[in-house]
Design a protein that fits this description.
transcription cis-regulatory region binding (chains A, B); about 20% strand; 5-stranded parallel sheet; about 230 residues; alpha/beta; phosphoprotein (chains A, B); DNA-binding; phosphorelay response regulator activity (chains A, B); 12 strands; Rossmann fold; Arc Repressor Mutant, subunit A; 2 domains; homodimer; 8 helices
DNA sequence: AAAAAGATTAATGAAAAGTTAATGTTATTA
DNA sequence: TAATAACATTAACTTTTCATTAATCTTTTT
């Protein structure tokens, strides 16, 4: 898991201390500076993923700092974290190029979630998301419907895929017949149940290369995809 | 300047009306639906840049709707716009993959700024590739529509080119019928689907010199240009 | 041992996709 | 402006795909 590096610009000693400690605890690398000039200096020297700017600071305020960042062509995403909650300030913040404008006070947990979300969006800009499931020696790519085992590859159909994903999401846990049927087939009747059996057989055949993988039936209850 | 297309999911008639009108005035294309089921239907048919979800709606709430979007692999960025302001709701919203969580009431002007900001961040660099695409022993030049294989050359038409480029950009990944149709044809209906088939046939014929290249159909899903 | 549930393989049929040709439609040229 | 050319769309028809249904066999439960 990537560790993100943040620059925190906050003149208030106690809030700065608190945030610094909390963010570090949450697995961020944090550099904390207390004014705009120090911020600019550090930004010249080091690379950051995101910059958190207070607005109200003596000497050079957050807006002025943002202007400087823009002027010096330092390409770093920044956001404002401030008690200035007037609409006009928010608009100004965004017009300066902020990626977000967060009003104080904010719950630390929510802040972390927002930061991670922003960093995730900013990073994802160019890479297509790769959601892969791993089970035993198999890999399943639900976006392309591709199941792979070593160099072999199978193209699954949509029903096969839906069922496999359902089981994978509940790996090692029982999936009740009725839940599978209601979720995937939309209803739970005699015929759909038969159909489900046929698909389980297919998946078993597809997964037989790794003997540690099993789709167990729990009589009258449901199926369980077992592995490890 | 690009005009962004939004899906607004809001059951409240007066707020929905207000937002719809305001956003249209601000140069967005807006489709307004009043419940989750309609939203899912429209999402299958049309392409949007961003989706604005209310949380509290009868029948299927916004969170449930987001789950459905995820499960159906509809790749659309969405945010919540809601009066539910508890931390636990915010965290839930982000955990479902929201790009933002905006608390009501919000000033319309601020909303628009936030939307534009998000869309700006999300906008993938649509670097219209100037270089040649290579696939197998073929090269394709998208500027003058020229496909070459060894000494042979073909002049493609614009539709052929658009489709080929779309497939090339997503080489080895599924391009969903509906996405191709919405992007290239502008809409997804019976006739356009037929037309798409005709073009796929043409491209297959053009690419047949290299047997390692295949345009696969994934039943009910889309096409996949395979190579290597 | 009988009955119910599950597994497996095969058959079926409707919908989707493939192909070729005909028909519109638009832009270009005479 | 009529004729032509280029090309996307629609039509007509064939082939393929795949979820469902059916048939048959095996396991589990009572």
């Amino acid at each position: 898991m990537k560790m993100y590096k943040l620059l925190l610009v906050e003149d208030d000693a106690s809030l700065g201390y608190l945030l610094n400690e909390y963010l570090k605890m949450k697995n961020f690398t944090v550099i904390w500076v207390k004014n705009g000039n120090d911020a600019l200096k550090v930004l010249e020297e080091q690379q950051f993923d995101l910059c958190i700017l207070d607005v109200m600071m003596p000497d050079m305020d957050g807006f002025k700092l943002a202007e400087n960042i823009n002027q010096k062509n330092i390409s770093i995403p920044f956001l404002f974290l401030t008690a200035r909650s007037l609409k006009i300030d928010v608009l100004k913040g965004f017009s300066l190029g902020a990626v977000d404008y967060i009003r104080k006070p904010i719950d630390e947990e929510e802040l972390v979630v927002r930061l991670n979300n922003l960093l995730h969006i900013l990073a994802k800009k160019n890479t297509s998301q790769k959601e892969l499931y791993k089970i035993g020696f198999y890999t399943y790519n639900p976006l392309d419907f591709e199941l792979s085992f070593e160099s072999e590859k199978w193209q699954l159909t949509s029903r096969e895929s839906e069922l496999l994903v359902y089981l994978l999401k509940n790996k090692n846990h029982i999936c009740k017949h009725k839940d599978i049927l209601n979720t995937i087939w939309g209803k739970n009747d005699y015929f759909n149940r038969k159909s489900l059996n046929v698909f389980v057989t297919r998946l078993r055949k597809l997964l037989k290369n790794d003997p540690s993988i099993k789709i167990e039936n729990i009589h009258n209850q449901g199926f369980k995809l077992m592995s490890e």
